[in-house]
Structures are given as C-alpha cells and as structure tokens.
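debug: dumping io for the single-chain case to check the tokenizer round-trip. Nothing else runs in this session.
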Amino acid sequence: MSCYSELWRDSQEFGALLMDIRGRWLPMGVLGLSAVHKAQLLAALCQTLPRRALLVAPDEMQAARLTEDLQAFGLRALLYPARDLAFRPAESRSREYEHQRLAVLDAMRNGNCDVVTCSVEAAMQRTIPPQTLAANCFTLRVGEICGVERLVARLLRAGYTRAPQVEGAGQFALRGGILDVFPPQSAAPLRLEFWDEAIDSIAGFDPETQRRGEPLEEIRLTPANEIVPESTEHLLELAEKHHAGLRGKGSTKIKLSLQADIDTLRSGLRPASIDRYLPLIYPQTATVLDYLEPEGLLAFSESFNLRERAGGCDKLWLEDLRALTEEGVLAAGLDRYALRWPEFLVRAEALGVIYLDNLPRGSFDTPVRDLISITARQLTPWNGMLDLLLEDLEHLKERRDANCIIFAGTEKSAKALADDLTNEGYRALYCPVPPAAFPKGIIAVLPGSLSAGAEYPLLKCTVIT
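debug: decoded output
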C-alpha cells in the first residue's frame, strides 16, 4: 500500500468496495465522486489489491486529466488515444496516435503500466488482437544472431516502411551492414551494426547530425501499424476474395476501388488505404478491453455522459459510412471498425464494470449488484496567495487527528511553502517524495499538482493543490 491508499484504511465504504471486488460482486456503482476523487480512489484500489485498471471516460480531455491525476498519486498511468482511419487511397495522415496506442497496448500486455485511461470512442474502436501484437513485437540484443535480411522481413511484416534515410517513426533504412530503424515508442532512431549475422552494436543517433548516442544492450520493437496482415500475399488473397463476392447495385465503384488495391498488392506493395481492410485481416473483434488481464479493474467514469457520447459516435459513424458507401470506398464486409454501444456494454458487463459517478442518475446501463456512496467534496485549486491558504487551514491548526496534504507545484515552491507554514505556527513537513504514510496532525507539502483539491470529512483528510 502507498501513503495515498493508507488514507482509506479505516473507511467502511472502501472496505465494502474491496470486498465486492474480491468476491466478484460486480457490476457495481460508486457515487459521490468528482474527477479527482475517482483518481484517488482508483489509485488506492490498484495499490491495495493490487491490480491493474482500465478507466473509460466520456472524452479524451477528461481521460487526459484523469491520467495526470493518477500519475500525481503515484501510478504508472497511460493515455490510450482514439485514432482516425484513412479509407481513401489518397489520404495521408500522421500515425502518431496509432503509435501511441500500440505502445500502450504493449505496456498493458507486459504489465508495464498500472492504469490506462481512454475515451469511450477509443475503447470501442477495434485494434490489433493481443496474439497478433505479441507475434510482431520482438527484442534485439547485442551479440544476437538474427541476420539482416530476416530482420528486414520482420520489419516489413510489422508495418515498417523502407526509406533511403530514416526521417520519422515507423521507417527503416539499410546500408550494407548498418540498419537504421525508428521504433514508434522510441524518442530517436536506432542504429544497429552487424558483424556477419550477429548484432555488433546498438545505439540511438541524431537523424540530422548522425551523431551516435550512448550504446544500448537491447531494444524492443513494436509494430509500426495497428493493421498487420500475415503477408502481402495473404492480404491479396483476402482482397481478391472480397472483390469476387461483391454483388448488386452500387458494387461497381467499390469493385473498381478494390481492383486498384489488388493491382498494387500484385506488384508487391501494400495499399495506402490498408485501414479499410481491418475487418478482413482481423475477423475476430478485438478492442482495448481484450488487453485487460482477467483480474483487472474496469471502471466507467460518468455513465450517463458515456452513453450520450457513445451514441453520438454511433450516429456520426453511420452518416460517414453512408457517404463512404455511396462513394465506393466501403461496402458490406468492410464496415465494422468499432463496437456499437450495446455490444460494448455486453463485454463490459462480462468483465465486471465499476461505475464511478458523481450524482445518481436513476439506473445504470447494466444491472448493478451493489451501490456505495462516498462522502467527498471537491475543492477549487489554491491560487498561490499565502493569506488565503492560511484562512483555509485555520481550522486544522490545533487538530492532531486529521491529515492535510498540499501539492504545491515545483519542488522549490513546495519547500518554500513548508517553511512559510512553519513560520506561521503550523506543523508542516516538506516531502520531496511521498512518505510511507502521512502523519496525522502535520501538513505534508509535496511537489506536483492535481486538477482540483479534495476533502473527505469521514476520513478527516484534506487535499489542497
């Protein structure tokens, strides 16, 4: 347990919540929580049980704010973004979000994160199945016998693009016994030098100056695309089969479009519009939910807003699909790129979702087996004026049974605030890192910040930011 989860140790509501989760008495609802309360409660659950979690918010802005709060409470929290699909051959776009999604999925699969947050749109979008991601992730080590040509074949299969010189993520270049590659999760490209079939050295380098960085013993490569066919030949076979099966009115345009991609595949290249082949390449429907471990925690933030947002995404997609079908870009069989909200709910209910809501709104989207209310109040952030802070702290000056935690921004400002509070007669302690437990009756001042402050009257705990 961390110092933040220790604050909940004597809470009856928290004890009941732990009992429900351990006994799989799910789905369940927890009420009375604003965004910062949700982050602190989920952090306490992950650290106490201990388990990993997936938190779904209505939109990406709220998911990003929750991610920052979870990180402030000591968790390895990652944001899983939504992505735009490119269906038209002429469309070009940045793959930054796609690369970020792949890095998060790989971290979930390997247990290298505590919590993943995402919007409901991102959660419903289809993605690379876990087994396919596992097959296309690999680690390379100095001294390993792998062979340049075999490595190039693996990179091409994983969606990397061959280029004369590496300039961006997802590219590689080969010059004799030197292979440059830019993994999506890396801040800089990497240079591998080979001695015959063995990797002689690995190091990062600056693509502009070509200056090498510190040597590395190993590197991990993830795919450069979410959509990874078994091979160009297999994708050609899928496209030809789908082309031959198209019938009826309106199929002429899509058949012409598919034929252009088939010609590209026959020449040994992959089409730029590979996104539209996702339903053919991945017949099984996989989302970020499939990366949550069996005992992991699935939480929904603000269920009513989730439903409204998901309904809006469904409606917008149906309008786009109608236009793309009339244009001859998509057709039956090439139209399933995300779960619909009812399908998503079925999967969430099977996993055992925890609804984290602020106010009661009648019923939840799935029947709940328990309902717990948390007594909590959100506090507006402190504006930095010492006299205003002293007014807020006056009632705590003589108390020895309460906790007060202040996130003061930078380390310099946190240390200065602790000194100021001590000079004003308060028992204050500067904590450069979170302590094992927060001492009662002492104001703990830490660097960092939250989206808002929080007060828990029953826990006798106040958090100021």
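debug: round-trip ok. Residues 303-327 form the longest helix (25 residues).
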